Amino acid sequence: MTSTVWWNRTVGEFVQEAGSAEPTPGGGSVAALAAALGASMASMASRLSQGEAFAALQTSVGEVLETMNRLTGACEELLEADIRVFEEYMRALKLPKESERERAARRSAIDEAAASATAVPLRLMQVCLEGLRAAERIAEGCNKHVVSDLGIGALLFEASAQSAGLTVRINLSSLRNADLATQYERQVSAMLQEAEALKTQVLRTVHSRIAGH
Q1: Are the beta carbons of 164 and 85 closer than 8 angstroms?
Q2: Are 35 and 157 in contact (CB under 8 A)?
Q3: What is the 3-state secondary structure (H, E, C) of 135-161?
Q4: pLDDT along the chain (213 residues), means of 10
Q5: Domain parsing of the chain, residue ranges
Q6: pTM (2 d.p.)
Q7: CA dihedral (137, 142, 144, 145) positive or negative
Q8: How far apart are CA 33 and CA 93, in angstroms?
Q9: Which pick of 4, 60, 135, 191 has the fewest CB atoms within 10 Å?
């Protein structure tokens, strides 16, 4: 089954397949779906924060809605890309390795597939950070009746970022370029620190506003 089918399957089908013995959809795909759900929560909170009562927030709300629409599309692409690059990696592992020439070709294919399998979750982490930054912008002024949903969106974005970080790290062992692996590790660490800080800030605001009801 081609990866492009996955996005349009039912939730039940996706969950069943993710829990099966098949390797796809796997953790990277689930992380992309979680980020898309985070974007949906932030979108809903934004849409319910429109009108005269939220006049001062309208520019930010409009920008957040545009961001979330774009991020949702990115999550769809990354979900499919995660499945595709994993399949490419598995094909590379199965290449023949009898002769020196075959071994060199196989190693080259593995290197290329491992780099792709690392780049996809790195892009997902960037998506999550953008979503968290956008959520933080409207946390203080959005509709108080859906501020908890905005907090849920932030939690999903951060969980997705953490999950994508694990995917990056397990793929680093397949990279022969030690300098590149070190660079990726530093990027992951920096992005996870920012994701944690943003999530904490959003939740602090959310809890404060809930307590003030």
Answers
A1: no
A2: yes
A3: HHHHCCCCCHHHHHHHHHHHHHHHHHH
A4: 62 87 86 97 96 90 96 95 91 92 92 91 98 97 96 98 96 86 95 98 97 79
A5: 26-212
A6: 0.92
A7: negative
A8: 27
A9: 4
